[in-house]
Input
Amino acid sequence: QVQLLESGGGSAQAGGSLKLTCVASGLTHSNYYMGWFRQAPGKEREEREAVARIESDGATRYADSVKGRFTISKGSVANTLYLQMDSLNPEDTATYYCAAAEAIIFRGWWYGGTSTRSPGGYWGQGTQVTVSS
Output
């Protein structure tokens, strides 16, 4: 059974930093993409916004809204994923979700062609990030 467990959320002032951690247990597929999505207050699950991803070959991709401010990385411990968030602003306030899936599903989530409610892939329970001005 696969489980994704996020931690590290909390409150920060605008301009501050937070680091999120995701630990994936039971994930044996080496060709999975892993990454982060966020769901702003009042938004539905289908409106989750892509934030950052690491592809199976280690390539990284970022949403334009976070490029240059957020950094995604994998830890030395297998299936540990990080999101370093710097220069935070109030628009970054959201629940952040760790996700893992085969490339075709993950890319569908990323570009919006696949609903985040669709079966396949895995999601964490989310961690709240609140940025005040």
DSSP finds one helix and eleven strands in the chain.
